[in-house]
C-alpha cells in the first residue's frame, strides 16, 4: 500500500502532456483544463469527439499520431492514459527519471501521483481519493458531496474571501478578527435561501454588502466576548 501526500498544484504556464485519446484521457484532460493547465498537449492516433472539439477550439494541441519521447520534452506533468500497458509503464519510468510528475491510468502506484475525484465550487475545491483501493467508492462519495455542497457555495466562498480581505485591512485585534471570520464561515448557505442565488450565476460581491456583513459580525463577536 502506498501513502499519498495531497497537494493543490498551480499549473498556469506549465506544460502538461496527456498520452492517449480515449474516455480516460478525455476525463483527465478536462480535469487539467478545469485546474488551469494552459499549455496542454494530447498525443494519440485516435481521439474522442470531445477531444477533437477542444482541439478545434484551441484549448489543447492535439498530435494525431503515436507518442514519441520528444513529446514529453519540457513537460512539468505527464499522464499516461493509453491502452498500451507497456507504453504506460515505459512512460512512468521515463518521466520519473527526468523529474516529470507522472500519472498512469492503468498502473496507479507506478506513477508519482494519482488523480483524486474533484468537486469544484469556485475557489472551494473538494478532492478525495481511496488511494486506488476503490475508484468506484470515490465516484460514489463525489456524487454525495456534489449534492451536499450545492452551487451556492461558489458565491458564499467569494463573499468570505471579500470579507476576509476587508477584515484583515480593518480589524487590528487578532482575537476579534478570528471570531469574525469564524462566525462568517458558520453562516453556511442554507438550501432555501442560497441555492437560487447560486444557480443565478456568479455575481461579484458588493462592497456595501460586505461592509454591512462585517459590521454585523463585529457586533456579534463583541457580544460573545
Ligand atoms: C477518481 C477518478 C479520477 C479520474 O480518473 O479522473 C479515478 N478513477 C475514476 C473513475 C473510474 N476508474 C475506473 C472506472 C471504471 C469502473 C471501475 O472499474 O471501477 C471509473 C469510472 C467510474 O467509476 O465512473 C477503473 C480504474 N481506475 C483505475 C484503474 C487501474 C488500477 O486500479 O490500477 C481502474 C481499472 C481499469 C481497468 O481495469 O482497466 C485507477 C485509478 N483511478 C483513479 C482515479 C486513481 C485512484 C483514485 C482512487 O482510488 O480514489 C487511479 C489509481 C489512478 C489514476 O487514474 O490516477 C475517477 C472518478 C471519476 C469522478 O470523479 O467521478
Ligand atoms: N484511471 C482510470 O480511472 C481508468 C478507468 C478506466 C480504464 N482505465 C485504463 O485506462 C486505459 C485507457 O482507457 P480508455 O478507456 O481511455 O481506452 P481506449 O482504448 O478508449 O483509448 C486508448 C487510447 O490510447 C491511444 N493510444 C494507443 N497507443 C498509443 C500510442 N502509442 N501513443 C499514443 N496514444 C496511443 C489510442 O489511440 C486511444 O486514443 C486503459 O488501459 C484502461 O485499463 C483507467
From TrEMBL:
Pathway the protein contributes to: Porphyrin-containing compound metabolism; siroheme biosynthesis; sirohydrochlorin from precorrin-2: step 1/1
InterPro entries: Met8-like, NAD(P)-bd_dom_sf, SirC_C, Sirohaem_synthase_central, Sirohaem_synthase_N
Xref: Pfam families: NAD_binding_7 (PF13241), Sirohm_synth_M (PF14824)
The protein's enzyme class: oxidoreductase
Keyword Oxidoreductase: yes
Keyword terms: NAD, Oxidoreductase, Porphyrin biosynthesis
Record-listed E.C. numbers: 1.3.1.76
Domain Siroheme synthase central: 121-145
Catalysed transformations (reactions): precorrin-2 + NAD(+) = sirohydrochlorin + NADH + 2 H(+)
Coiled coil: none
Entry-linked NCBIfam families: cysG_Nterm
PANTHER family registered for this protein in UniProt: SIROHEME BIOSYNTHESIS PROTEIN MET8
Name this protein carries in UniProt: precorrin-2 dehydrogenase
Amino acid at each position: 500500500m502506498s501513502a499519498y501526500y495531497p497537494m493543490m498544484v498551480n499549473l498556469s504556464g506549465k506544460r502538461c502532456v496527456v498520452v492517449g485519446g480515449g474516455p480516460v484521457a478525455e476525463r483527465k484532460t478536462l480535469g487539467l483544463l478545469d485546474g488551469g493547465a494552459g499549455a496542454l498537449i494530447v498525443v494519440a492516433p485516435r481521439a474522442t469527439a470531445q477531444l477533437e472539439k477542444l482541439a478545434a477550439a484551441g484549448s489543447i494541441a492535439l498530435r494525431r499520431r503515436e507518442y514519441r519521447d520528444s513529446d514529453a520534452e519540457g513537460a512539468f506533468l505527464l499522464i499516461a492514459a493509453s491502452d498500451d500497458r507497456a507504453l504506460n509503464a515505459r512512460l512512468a519510468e521515463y518521466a520519473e527519471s527526468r523529474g516529470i510528475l507522472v500519472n498512469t491510468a492503468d498502473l496507479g502506484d507506478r506513477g508519482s501521483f494519482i488523480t483524486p475525484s474533484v468537486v469544484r465550487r469556485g475557489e472551494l475545491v473538494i478532492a478525495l481519493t481511496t488511494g486506488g483501493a476503490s475508484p468506484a467508492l470515490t465516484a460514489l462519495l463525489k456524487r454525495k458531496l456534489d449534492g451536499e455542497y450545492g452551487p451556492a457555495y461558489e458565491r458564499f466562498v467569494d463573499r468570505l474571501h471579500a470579507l476576509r480581505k476587508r477584515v484583515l485591512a480593518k480589524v487590528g485585534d487578532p482575537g476579534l478578527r478570528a471570531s469574525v471570520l469564524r462566525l462568517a464561515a458558520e453562516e453556511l448557505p442554507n438550501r432555501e435561501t442560497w441555492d437560487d442565488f447560486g444557480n443565478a450565476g456568479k455575481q461579484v460581491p458588493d462592497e456595501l454588502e460586505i461592509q454591512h456583513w462585517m459590521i454585523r459580525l463585529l457586533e456579534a463577536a463583541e457580544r460573545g466576548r
